[in-house]
Amino acid sequence: MTTILLDAQDDERIQAVTEAALAWTRATGGHLHCLQVSPYEAYVTSGGFGDLYGLGQLTKAIDERGEAFEKELREELGNEDVSWDYNRQTGHAITAIVHRAAMADLLVTSRHVHRAIGWSSALARLGEILTRSRTPVFIPGDDDHHVDPKGTAVIAWDGSYEIANTVRTSVPFLRLASDVKVVTVEEKEEEFPGTELLKYLSRHDVHAELHVEPFDEDEVETVLLGHARLSENPYLVVGAYSHSRVGEYLFGGVTRSLLKSCPVGLVMSH
User: Fold this and answer.
1) 125 and 200: one domain?
2) Distances, alpha carbon 56 to alpha carbons 45, 61, 118, 227, 251, in Å
3) What Gene3D superfamilies does UniProt report for this protein, alphabetically (predicted)?
4) Residue 168 resides in a domain
5) How far apart are CA 9 and CA 200, in angstroms?
6) Which structural domain, as residue segments, surrounds residue 44?
7) Which helix (H) or strand (E) holds 202?
8) For 115-160, what is each residue's pLDDT tens digit?
9) Is residue 71 part of a domain?
10) Half-sphere exposure at residue 8, Cβ-oriented, CA atoms within 13 angstroms
11) In angstroms, what CA-CA distances link 82 with 37, 214, 225, 246?
């Protein structure tokens, strides 16, 4: 049975993240594990001279909000038709998430931060999760459209180890897609050519189309999103932080851009 890990953090996109996790759980017939971490950072604030001090009333308010959040989410999940369990803990959020993700098949998280630590960098948080975890990550799109695991998977292929790893670990989910598109840009040398990817996918009963686009470092993101917009219920499959020549553009700046904002869902891995 597939295990979907929901990063149940109290942020402005928790409803969309929860719905996405439920969609993947239903589509795979899997089990949903919800992890709510009250981050240490929420209990500490910085004074005017950089001193760290705890605030009793703030701590109480955070605890009460955490309890209310858990109650609301448990009540919502109790009305759903999936197998699920719930774990709440206090600690270093990223460490806890990465630890739990080691025994999950897909981590569903947000590109936002916990309400209590809004000063933190969401991009840094996602970057640390991606570099420390080997579990593929799904991030819902910014547009509030329904997540459909049986929609169209658009693979952003640059022939790197990062995207190869993402595809390999995502094969069970790619099998669910009604359509799979492999979008690549022209490059003379690749570690893994797009044609080899098609062969690999076919061995796993995933039949994909290859789309080769001319390379333009300023248009890569536009090309990827263009293919997504022309597809039915799309999501992007992207490798994080590649270092190939084209990858420096495709999954350097573009990765950062997509992590900050993307209209469709992302499946990512490092």
Assistant:
1) no
2) 12, 9, 19, 52, 44
3) 3.40.50.12370
4) yes
5) 36
6) 3-139
7) helix 194-203
8) 666 545 788 888 889 889 999 999 999 986 689 999 999 999 988 8
9) yes
10) 31
11) 22, 44, 32, 42
Statement to judge: residues 129 and 163 lie in one domain = no
Q: Are 183 and 227 in contact (CB under 8 A)?
A: yes
Number of domains in the chain: 2
Query: What is the 3-class SS of 136-182, one letter each residue?
Result: CEEECCCCCCCCCCCCEEEEEECCCHHHHHHHHHHHHHHCCCCEEEE
In a domain, 212, yes or no: yes
Residues of the chain with pLDDT under 50: 46-54, 119, 188, 242-251
Secondary element (H or E) of residue 239: strand 234-239
* Spatial distance between the Cα atoms of 105 and 162, rounded to a whole number of angstroms: 17
Is there a domain that residue 61 lies in? yes
pLDDT digits (tens, 9 = 90+) for 176-185: 999 999 998 7
**Taking the chain, what is the end-to-end CA distance rounded to the nearest angstrom?**
24
Structure tokens at 164: 């190869």
